[in-house]
Specification:
With 118 residues, the protein is mostly helical. 70% of the residues lie in helices and 0% in strands. The radius of gyration is 23 Å and the shape is rod-shaped.
Length: 118
């Protein structure tokens, strides 16, 4: 599954059109990493939640140290809201793709004249 599932395809830049101000290549590098991080964090948080049943009777300093350390990590990872950032990246991709298509249409119309109304 790709991080861009459901996104518009990356449009080419047509002759005479200006490229939009969006780094499609950069997004394609960041997106998979964010998706992998989101999956890893979700898996880790799920595993810890499942382990709590077994750690219930583990008392003393070790448990406190474990909870303090892992609790801080969980708070940071949960608060990062990686899924929301992925959604924002997908939205930015779609908006940039639509803007590029508009720029391509404008360039084509400038070269050949406006198209007939629909």
């Amino acid at each position: 599954m790709s991080w861009r599932d459901g996104c518009a395809p990356r449009p080419p830049v047509a002759d005479g059109a200006e490229p939009v101000d969006f780094d499609f290549g950069g997004a394609d590098q960041v997106g998979p990493r964010l998706e992998a991080l989101r999956a890893h964090v979700s898996s880790g948080l799920g595993a810890r939640a499942a382990a709590q049943i077994h750690l219930r009777d583990w008392s003393g300093g070790h448990r406190r140290a474990y909870d303090d350390h892992r609790g801080t990590q969980e708070g940071i990872l949960s608060g990062a809201d990686i899924g929301t950032e992925l959604a924002r990246l997908r939205t930015a991709w779609d908006e940039a793709a639509a803007a590029q298509l508009r720029a391509n249409t404008t360039a084509a119309e400038a070269a050949t004249g406006p198209s007939a109304p629909r």
